[in-house]
Amino acid sequence: MGNLDDIIRGRRSIGKVKNDPVPKELVEELIESAVWAPNHHGTEPWRFIVMTGEGRRTLGQAYEDIAAEGLLDVPDAEREQRLNKEMAKAFRAPVVIAAICVPSDMPRVNIAEELAASHAAVQNLLLTAHAKGLGAVWRTGDPAYHLKMKKALDLKDREQVVGLIYVGYPDLLPPVSRRTAGKEKTIWLEG
Ligand SMILES: Cc1cc2nc3c(=O)[nH]c(=O)nc-3n(C[C@H](O)[C@H](O)[C@H](O)COP(=O)(O)O)c2cc1C
Fold it and tell me: Taking Cα atoms as reference points, which of 112, 104, 115 lies closest to residue 163?
């Protein structure tokens, strides 16, 4: 495990990973790290669905069903090709973790904060993946928020996908990424 600053700055979205399986214990470590995220009122508003092997078909089928809605007028052969591509998306990494926000129903709880905590959990997961030599990318896109995705993953009413985290061993050099310096995003109010 390296220095925190290096881990934070060195983490990149890794969209291309090898097919090599990731040990289950390592995936479990990522999730154990995720659950240490800050959360207001101690709600721990998250759960995770880990998809590997043929288990990724659940996600692929959802991608297919969602895409199919927009392909009604497309000729059969082309339609099938497009749907196969949708299924293939779920197989881009050996492990796909759906991070789910499970908002508390306590009256004083604010949904924005439940989402904030879930997002922080995803960042913990990504940083730990990077620190352990894995590559990961946080994916969403419209399908992640589609009702058919919710149904496919068997989410309850108020639950929602906050990320589909694709994880594996990196198969590309870390891309270059840039950030505007924090000091350009900061004002100080001082005495
Ligand atoms: C909420 C959220 C959703 C994202 N969805 C996608 C996505 O659907 N596809 C993708 O390639 N990257 C996605 N990303 C990753 C960003 O593209 C990436 O973080 C950004 O390009 C900066 O690169 P870096 O992560 O390597 O620093 C998402 C990031 C966030 C925070």
Answer: 115
Residue 1: pLDDT band with limits 50, 70, 90 = low
Count of alpha carbons within 13 angstroms of residue 68, beta-carbon side: 13
Please report which helix (H) or strand (E) contains residue 110, including its range.
none
Mutate to test the pocket of ligand 1, among 63, 97, 140 (most ligand atoms within 8 A of CB): 140
Q: Closest ligand 1 atom to the C-alpha of 179?
A: 27
Rounded to whole angstroms, the Cα distance separating 1 from 184 reads: 30
Structural domains in the chain, CATH included, are: 4-51+93-170 (3.40.109.10)
* Confidence grade of residue 88 (pLDDT, cut at 50, 70, 90): very high
Residues 44, 121: Cα–Cα separation, whole Å: 10
